[in-house]
Amino acid sequence: MSGQDFAVIDAPQTVLGEGPMWSVREQVLYWIDIVSRRIFRLRPRTGQVDVRELPYAPSAVIPRASGGLVIVTKKGMALTEFDKPQLQSVAVPLVDFKKEVFNDAKCDSAGRLWVGTRDLHVKEPNGGLFCMHADFSMHRHASGLVVSNGIAWAQSGSVMYHVDSHPGRIDAYDFDASTGALSNRRVFRDYVKERTAAIPDGCAADAEGGLWVAEVGDWHIRRYAPDGRLDREIRMPFQKPTSVMFGGADLGTLYVTSMRFGLDDAALAEQPLAGSLLQLDVGVKGQPEHVFGG
After folding, report:
1. What's the pLDDT score for residue 2?
2. Residues 128 and 148 sit within 8 Å (Cβ to Cβ)
3. H helices within the chain, ranges in order?
4. CA nearest to 53, candidates 21, 24, 12
5. Nearest Cα to Cα of residue 188 among 228, 132, 139
């Protein structure tokens, strides 16, 4: 599918836009620029975009049940409020930052924070998948990842999807929401086997069972059915879409982040919207994102 109508959000273009997160309570969209060390907040009703500078490179932003945000940075975590400068550090003793750094994160229905790491040099399987509970205790659930990335849950809540961007794979797990246990790991999509140039990145599940994936390097976002079959594809006006998130009052808007990072002058001239935030109506609604219970 091509020629999809989209709107460009009037916001600063990002070098490496990532981590869109819709806050149901606040009715705002957060997203980040990893390279420029900034968080953005969009109020769709007015179009207002607020910007906060950070002292560290962020990798994810997650709303908290008690108010405020969890900021996952490349080498740590902190609690904060968007409009206040204070950052309260959170201990993450299980992570070896000499080998790995934090990447994408999401919360499950019980308020646990799931966060992955990537190899420091994006080469070796040093990354893992961690879960932080509401009491801030932390457990490692998977190892041997190169670039842990997008996380999402099927609308039933019983399946968790997890992306490893290199060499390119999406895994599915059976998920026990009561305990947070993962089991029956299997390959949902194997990009190496398909010999595609696409690199899976951020993802979001819709209310009808589809998994939407931003595929870096291939100009597309794609929707996959629960059996892994390609259902839809939408061409973007940039080569490197990075993540997707459903938002809006009825969760009927799909937001897409992107990046300019790694594009030369000729590529940037060809795709002036690279680094922009887009919104689309894809004819299906999303699911509300969960907040951190801690």
Report:
1. 46
2. yes
3. 265-270
4. 12
5. 228
| Eight-class DSSP state of 155 | T
Q: Which distant-in-sequence residues (6+ apart) come within 8 Å of 68 by Cβ?
A: 79, 80, 81, 82
CA–CA separation, 181 vs 160, rounded Å? 10
Per the structure block, which two tokens stand in for 171?
């895994």
Active site residue 33: no
**Any idea what the Cα angle at residue 256 is, between residues 112 and 4, rounded to 5°?**
140
Rg (CA), the chain: 17
Return d(Cα 58, Cα 257) in angstroms, integer: 15
Instruction: Give CA–CA dist 277/275, Å, rounded.
Output: 7
Tens of pLDDT, residues 192-213: 998 888 999 999 999 999 999 9
Which strands form 113-119's sheet, in the order they lie side by side?
Answer: 100-107, 113-119, 127-132, 138-145
Give the torsion sign (CA, 257, 261, 263, 265).
Answer: positive
**pLDDT one-digit tens code per residue, 120-179:** 999 999 999 999 999 999 999 999 999 999 999 999 899 999 999 998 999 999 999 999
Quote the CA–CA distance of 128 and 148 in Å, as a whole number: 7
Reduced to 3 states (helix: H, G, I; strand: E, B; else coil), residue 80 is strand
Cα 178 to Cα 119, 132, 182, distances in angstroms: 30, 15, 11
Apex 215 CA angle, 138 and 77, nearest 5: 25
| Predicted model pTM | 0.97
> Which of 201, 206, 218, 231 does the annotation list as catalytic?
201
CB 161 within 8 A of CB 117: no
